[in-house]
Structure formats: C-alpha cells, structure tokens
Amino acid sequence: MQKITITKPDDWHVHLRDDFILEGVVKDSLKNFSRILVMPNLVNPIKNTQDAINYKTRIINAIKKLKIHNYFEPLMSIYLTDNTSEKDIELAFRSGVIFGVKLYPFRSTTNSFDGVTDLFGKCSLVLYKMEELGIPLLIHGEVFNKTVDIFDRELIFIENIAIPLKEKFPKLKIVLEHISTKDAVEYVKSAKDPIAATITPQHLFYNRNIIFNHGLNPHFYCLPILKREKHRLALIEAATINNTKFFIGTDSAPHSKENKENESGCAGCYSACYAVEMYATIFDRVGCIDKLEQFISFNGPNFYGLPYNSTKINLIKQSHIIPKKLNRNIEIVPLGAGELLDWKLVE
Ligand code: NCD
Ligand code: ZN
C-alpha cells in the first residue's frame, strides 16, 4: 500500500461561523490542519481587534470542549470597511493576533454588505498603514456590478483593482484568495512580490459544468464561481509547479443543506473535513503527489513568515467515499458528497 508522511498542513482561508456549529466545524479543521486562518465575515463581521479577540475566545472554548490538546491558537483576521481607521490597523498589528485584513468588495459574497465600496477613495490611508506595518491584505478578488458577467468578475477585478493597487502600494503584502481563473494565475506569477494566491479544492476538482450536471447542483455554488476547464487546468498547473506564490486555502464555508437547496441558495462549499484528502487525490491524479507538501505545508508559512509545523500527517492510498450528509448541529452536504477519494488520512 502506498503511504506518504508529510508535514502537517495549515489552512490559510477558512470560515468557521459561530455559535452552535462552531464546535463541529472546528473539529473538522483541526483533524486536517495545524494552523487555521479564520475569515471575519460573520453575520456581524469581525471589524476590529477586540471583535477578533472575542471571536478567538469563542473558538478556543469550542476547541477545549472537544478535549483537543496541543492545538495552535487560531490565526485571526479583521474585516476591512469604508470606516476602518489607521488606528484600527495599528491596534491589530500590536495585538499579535491578527494575521490579515480581509477585503470584501461591497456585495461580492456571503455577508459582504459591510464591504468596501471605494477602495482607493475610502481606504488609502489604511492601505498605506498596512504597507508600512507589513500586515497582509487578503482579497476577495471579484467586482460586483450588475453589468459584469459573473464569470468575468475576477478578471475585471484584476484589471480594475489589483493592478492599480499593486502600483500604488508596491510593498503591500497581498493574498489573492481562492483564485479561479487562468488570468489570476498569470497575473500572480507575473506580479512582483509580495503577492501570493490561495487555491481551493473545489477550483482544482471541478469546472463549471458540475453546477449544471443533470439539473442544478447548488452544492457546487461558491464564489468565485467555478469556471471553464482551461481555468481549472491552469490552477492545477499553478499548484503543482513548486511556485512558492501559490498555496492552500480551502475556503471551507459551511451553509446548512436547507440554505443551499433554497430558492436563493447560499454561496460556499464545505470541505474542511476532507480537504487534505481532496488535495492529495487531485495532486496524485495529475501525477504530482510529490508536490503536495510544498503546496499545503510550506508555501503558506513562507509567505506569512511563520515556521513549518513540526508534526506530521500520514496519508495512505485507499479509496473511500465522501458522505452524502454531515451533521454539525445543522445538516451539511459536504463538497463532493458521494464522490470517490483516492487518499485517506490515517493516524
Ligand atoms: C464564503 C462564505 O460562505 O462565507 N462563500 C463562498 O462562496 N466562498 C465567502 C467567500 O469566501 O466568498
Ligand atoms: Zn472564503
């Protein structure tokens, strides 16, 4: 039987939500990952350091209830708004608990109604401060505009926002999150450091056909929306070429089955529980299992200036099926429900 032992990975982009689902969701993440960078888009967003400290305490309490020992404290982020101040950024920097500031363009995705309406007009001073202090800007890189086709939102964001942002703030650390297009891959490759991009399992596994396969499949609806096959292939290439600018970020985003299978279904795929097995499966299917560790365990810490994890995980090549449903105090249909995975995490 084929077995690999690699450095325990981290998840550089995860949604844990709050309240009664927190415990189950955190458990899934900690089974797979050492450090997790927690997104701030709660219904009441995490807008400042105090919000983040309170949320972190709730997460740690959930971890304690699970009786998990030797865990890493979650890495927190705050939500950029039109009203974020330079002082907010300084406090975030000094706190030592904030690892990024998240840019959601207004209305771009789940809980983004507090998002930024005019980045260069309203946030310039804050961006200068972040550049000075070295705090990463974590970007949901899509424009939301009724005249822009949903499949072009990322490309237009790169042209209209990312390129000028990089010109105006060349030293600002940028992570283009959950990239979904060949255009984003090419942009990140060509842009000068410091810039990186995260890639999700869904964007490596699927193209947009899956959303419309034998009927409408809401469980594959996420933002950025899945794209054409040529984009998926470009993302696989980016993830598997040992280019340190690309690393893991699951964007695992739980929504209840009911809220997904709804006349206005929510965007987001839940992958925390099988994420590492999904990445291993796709890397192996393209003949690159030897590149997995670089992508899931080394490139992220390199970008964030953190040490590699000292613990290891074991994976064996063994088929198993992703369950059709999970119970995390709400019913959740996981990403790839019913599909075969080729690799399995073992003790
Ligand atoms: C995320 C969520 O549900 O919070 N949804 C998604 O489709 N990815 C938000 C996000 O990262 O865009
Ligand atoms: Zn996300």
UniProtKB/TrEMBL annotation:
<dbReference type="GO" id="GO:0005829">
    <property type="term" value="C:cytosol"/>
</dbReference>
<dbReference type="Pfam" id="PF01979">
    <property type="entry name" value="Amidohydro_1"/>
</dbReference>
<protein>
    <recommendedName>
        <fullName>Dihydroorotase</fullName>
        <ecNumber>3.5.2.3</ecNumber>
    </recommendedName>
</protein>
<feature type="active site">
    <location>
        <position position="251"/>
    </location>
</feature>
<feature type="binding site">
    <location>
        <position position="15"/>
    </location>
    <ligand>
        <name>Zn(2+) 1</name>
    </ligand>
</feature>
<feature type="binding site">
    <location>
        <begin position="15"/>
        <end position="17"/>
    </location>
    <ligand>
        <name>substrate</name>
    </ligand>
</feature>
<comment type="subunit">
    <text>Homodimer.</text>
</comment>
<feature type="binding site">
    <location>
        <position position="13"/>
    </location>
    <ligand>
        <name>Zn(2+) 1</name>
    </ligand>
</feature>
<dbReference type="InterPro" id="IPR002195">
    <property type="entry name" value="Dihydroorotase_CS"/>
</dbReference>
<feature type="binding site">
    <location>
        <position position="267"/>
    </location>
    <ligand>
        <name>substrate</name>
    </ligand>
</feature>
<feature type="binding site">
    <location>
        <position position="140"/>
    </location>
    <ligand>
        <name>Zn(2+) 2</name>
    </ligand>
</feature>
<keyword id="KW-0479">Metal-binding</keyword>
<feature type="domain" description="Amidohydrolase-related">
    <location>
        <begin position="11"/>
        <end position="317"/>
    </location>
</feature>
<dbReference type="GO" id="GO:0008270">
    <property type="term" value="F:zinc ion binding"/>
</dbReference>
<feature type="binding site">
    <location>
        <position position="251"/>
    </location>
    <ligand>
        <name>Zn(2+) 1</name>
    </ligand>
</feature>
<dbReference type="GO" id="GO:0006207">
    <property type="term" value="P:'de novo' pyrimidine nucleobase biosynthetic process"/>
</dbReference>
<feature type="binding site">
    <location>
        <position position="223"/>
    </location>
    <ligand>
        <name>substrate</name>
    </ligand>
</feature>
<dbReference type="InterPro" id="IPR032466">
    <property type="entry name" value="Metal_Hydrolase"/>
</dbReference>
<comment type="pathway">
    <text>Pyrimidine metabolism; UMP biosynthesis via de novo pathway; (S)-dihydroorotate from bicarbonate: step 3/3.</text>
</comment>
<dbReference type="GO" id="GO:0044205">
    <property type="term" value="P:'de novo' UMP biosynthetic process"/>
</dbReference>
<feature type="binding site" description="via carbamate group">
    <location>
        <position position="102"/>
    </location>
    <ligand>
        <name>Zn(2+) 1</name>
    </ligand>
</feature>
<feature type="binding site">
    <location>
        <position position="41"/>
    </location>
    <ligand>
        <name>substrate</name>
    </ligand>
</feature>
<dbReference type="GO" id="GO:0004151">
    <property type="term" value="F:dihydroorotase activity"/>
</dbReference>
<comment type="similarity">
    <text>Belongs to the metallo-dependent hydrolases superfamily. DHOase family. Class II DHOase subfamily.</text>
</comment>
<keyword id="KW-0378">Hydrolase</keyword>
<keyword id="KW-0665">Pyrimidine biosynthesis</keyword>
<keyword id="KW-0862">Zinc</keyword>
<feature type="modified residue" description="N6-carboxylysine">
    <location>
        <position position="102"/>
    </location>
</feature>
<feature type="binding site">
    <location>
        <position position="178"/>
    </location>
    <ligand>
        <name>Zn(2+) 2</name>
    </ligand>
</feature>
<feature type="binding site" description="via carbamate group">
    <location>
        <position position="102"/>
    </location>
    <ligand>
        <name>Zn(2+) 2</name>
    </ligand>
</feature>
<feature type="binding site">
    <location>
        <position position="140"/>
    </location>
    <ligand>
        <name>substrate</name>
    </ligand>
</feature>
<dbReference type="InterPro" id="IPR004721">
    <property type="entry name" value="DHOdimr"/>
</dbReference>
<dbReference type="InterPro" id="IPR006680">
    <property type="entry name" value="Amidohydro-rel"/>
</dbReference>
<feature type="binding site">
    <location>
        <position position="255"/>
    </location>
    <ligand>
        <name>substrate</name>
    </ligand>
</feature>
<comment type="function">
    <text>Catalyzes the reversible cyclization of carbamoyl aspartate to dihydroorotate.</text>
</comment>
